[in-house]
Amino acid sequence: MKIIDHIKSSQKTLFSFEILPPLKGDSIDSIYHGIDPLMEFKPSFIDVTYHREEYIEKKRSDGSFTKVPTKKRPGTVAICAALMHKYRIDAVPHIICGGFTKDDTENALIDLNFLGIDNVLALRGDNAKNESMFVPEVGGNANSLELIHQIKNMNNGIYIDEELTNANVTNFCIGAAGYPEKHHDAPNMKNDLKFLKRKVESGAEFIVTQMFFDNQKYFDFVARCRENDIHVPIIPGVKPLTSKSQLHILAKLFHIDIPDALTDEVENAKSTDAIKQIGVEWCAEQCKELIAAKVPVLHFYTMGKSEATRKICEKVF
Predict the structure, then answer these.
(1) Going from the N-terminus, what domains does the chain have, and what CATH number goes with each?
(2) What is the pTM of this model?
(3) Low-confidence ranges of the chain (pLDDT < 50)
(4) Is 124 helix (H, G, I), strand (E, B) or coil?
């Protein structure tokens, strides 16, 4: 079932969450252990992230250098299939630009279509670790807008090989990312919203936001989207803080502000358990306010750990 149809058919705020594929060599059981405790809250869909390979330059005996992969999270397509089979739930794979050619993307989308997966979240993806700015793969999509164009083309039966006739028409519901505090590469919010509008005009049917810890940033973002004729559903992404280090890690990685009140509470906490409880209470209050505002879905960034999200769901669903 398409995400847009889940939203249209519900009179209440839905629940969903995002998981990470396990590192290469780990079992899919680690995924199930993170999902099982949340299934009683009847999630409408589960996002599965996609990560590009990371490399280091290793010196050969002859003095030349070669790229050696150091980290990989394989299996997004397979994990989506496994989740749909085990839980009878819609899985939403992330499709990214970084590290993939357009042929790679087309083949991944063909596999997803074969599996009956009809939702995707189209993202540019992060910079490679050794790059100060995003560099697309040779022959790949340069940004999420180009990626959405490619997916939409396949929905219209247009493949890379222009000589194909009677090509199978896919039927993907395309999601895009939104940034209540502006994408870090955008010069300003006006420019960022202009780009987001182009993504919607090109085929994105729903938006999932970057995490935020101040609901007013989300409400302001939605208001500005509507003022700019962006009228698709905007799903808020939330995450409970679970450690003091996340004050700095999340702010740096995701280019977001942590409210003073939350920062003060966490910094004054006497134990890790106290910090986790603060994170749960703060996020639960966010969720209650968002539900009262009739947001379409509450989308949790679980990072593969369900304990805090479960405690929040017990309070709000």
Answers:
(1) 3-316 (3.20.20.220)
(2) 0.92
(3) none
(4) coil
